[in-house]
Amino acid sequence: MTAEPLTGDFFRFADALTDDEREIVARVREFLAEEVAPVALEHWTKAEFPHHLIPGFAGLNIASLPYDGLDGPAARRQLIGFVSMEIAHTDPSLNSFFGIHNGLAMGSIDLCGSPEQRERWLPAMGRMEKIGAFGLTEPHGGSDVARGLETTARREGDEWVIDGEKRWIGNGTFADLVVIWARDVADDSVKGFVVEQDNPGMTTTKMENKIALRTVQNADIVLSGCRVPEADRLQEAHSFADTNKVLRRTRGGVAWGSTGTMMAAYELALAYAQEREQFGRPIAGFQLVQDLLVRMLGNITASLGMAVRLAEMQEAGEARDEHAALAKEFCTSRMRETVAAAREVVGGNGVVLDYGVGKFFADAEALYSFEGTRQINTLVVGRAITGQSAFV
């Protein structure tokens, strides 16, 4: 069993995968088609998470792909990206759940934990026996969280006491482990802590009334006198620069997820245009519709090319903050244009969920904003190319 390139992979970037890698992608695609696609819309509509799917995801052995030694050698970044694209192509919400777990949470422990901490947590997380979340964003701190982190940590003997609030924490309502970033009151440095869900000092509340990624269980988190042992402080997290190592890695993942999202919207719009008849023939034969479809395909192809090249640079250890920032900014912007064009092709039917496009149209809004807004990522790239910082 091997996976053929998706319809939207017009330049056949997936051909660069090895036979073994294509086998993995094919297994993921089969699981998504048989288990995820039939229930995705129902859970999105109800804003409920399909917990029954976690064992199936675990059986794919893909959570451990980025990490050396968990299930063999670490996979190539290209394969990791194509897996993410496949999941987003079926359901961006579940791709976000997966990226939070194996990207942000596991990545924090991998990059900022001691060898003992990596051994303690990562194997179980790689098997998806424990699910992770990542607590950085705050009610008053989004784009400026690097400077304005309000959550504090103070040391008392062999424990740390954490106080503060977090917001928009994906997986936060049910994750077994939440990586909490806080400012040390003693030296003003940013430190990371692994807080277990049953900690009496941490309260999680599900955020309601979202219009995007509704299946993702985002939480408001309150930490009040939350006591965490020194053994649960990430030993190699000493400043926000260490936090940013995690974000640099996962911003590339947003580029892949955005590409999968727009590819799905394009394929749905293409199929609709070939079947929908107006004025006595399929609308796919009208020039204005073909113009929209070709523009969508161009956006997808450019974004996928950028994502693939970024993965190659990550593999070679050459990717910097500005490379990940440009990929995130560009791909999510092109995604927003593409899902809007897909909605236009589908016409009035695009504002109901029955035809598929509406869900991707809505989910794109969340992808456009998280992991740094377009404007913030623009300033990261602008600083790199001009040598001048435009941050306030």
TrEMBL record:
Limits of the Acyl-CoA oxidase/dehydrogenase middle domain: 133-225
Assigned keywords, A-Z: FAD, Flavoprotein, Oxidoreductase
Keyword Secreted appears in the UniProt entry: no
Record family assignment: Belongs to the acyl-CoA dehydrogenase family.
Gene encoding the protein: gcdH
Domain Acyl-CoA dehydrogenase/oxidase N-terminal as annotated: residue spans: 18-129
Protein name in the entry: Glutaryl-CoA dehydrogenase
Taxonomic path: Bacteria, Bacillati, Actinomycetota, Actinomycetes, Pseudonocardiales
Species per Swiss-Prot/TrEMBL record: Pseudonocardia hydrocarbonoxydans
Acyl-CoA dehydrogenase/oxidase C-terminal domain residues: 244-385
